[in-house]
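Below is our example:
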Amino acid sequence: MELRVGNKYRIGRKIGSGSFGDIYLGTSIVNNEEVAIKLESIKAKHPQLEYEARVYKTLAGGIGIPFIRWFGTECDYNAMVMDLLGPSLEDLFNFCSRKFSLKTVLLLADQLISRIEYIHSKNFIHRDIKPDNFLMGIGKRGNQVYVIDFGLAKKYRDPKSHLHIPYRENKNLTGTARYASINTHLGVEQSRRDDLESLSYVMMYFCRGSLPWQGLKAATKKQKYDRIMEKKMTTSTDILCRGFPQEFAIYLNYVRSLRFDDKPDYSYLRKLFRDLFVREGFQYDYVFDWTIYKYEKESTRAQQMNQAQKEDYMQQQQQQQQQQRTPQNPTVPRHNGSYVVGDKTNMPPVHYGGAPAQDPSRYLPMENRVNDRV
């Protein structure tokens, strides 16, 4: 039986999991266009999908904000149909052997700061800034970064009066421990500064390949969070950013210096990295590491195939020459595809198979949610 949502979209295979639901590949019944469908059981203890859909609609029209095509209830599920996007930055980080070049980090930083600024301009903070929640577009928008998963987003000010929410303490950690700000670990209510501090850790993760507080062991989740907080607090900015341009340390020191209700200077932060980009002599050609890596993989595979074909031809020529020199009644045993002539063994032609390099422009699992990822 074909599963449908809103009598408009067919539900296909599962392609990912979100904080509060699973993601499926869908197709439009009208034109077969592919979409992403997020489902959440109506029996969920803390339903979030309707709230998330409302946030998306508030943010609608912004650059890098996925378009919500439909939201409603189907059988026992809440369903949200949205644009299908490409791989996450975490997917691409793994594709590139878990290290991004400075150029790629700076190209991303410019867009990521702008995405966060836009969300803040609409009176929301994201509260779960991490590589998994930034996806590349597909097709003509393949170089554009999108931000997803607003299940943990929260209004930080009144839309009309712009009155900021009050400062509070003793709050539980919301978000992902690896990228959480120090104040979030300390139980302080989150505000705009915390999204930007989390982004600093994301950028250093991309530059370094890992963060100093990854892989810490503890008996309980709380103890693990405490160890992560302790490591963050005792790792100085200079140590965290050692070996990389000073702009990364300047950025982190700036966002950590912000007061709870301060409006960050997003233009200043963008300019920091734009000036560094120009000083390094990079070009705004939007050639990311995964673009180059994909080309190199495919080029290497093509060379291997050409070499294999050449070896195939040479071995066929040798076999033909050997057969011409062989007596009419040869005593050459043939077995298992190997040809034995005297004391030499010539194996059958080698064919270099293997799957082609993974193409990051194809859709990959949209979300790989582990909110306590460390």
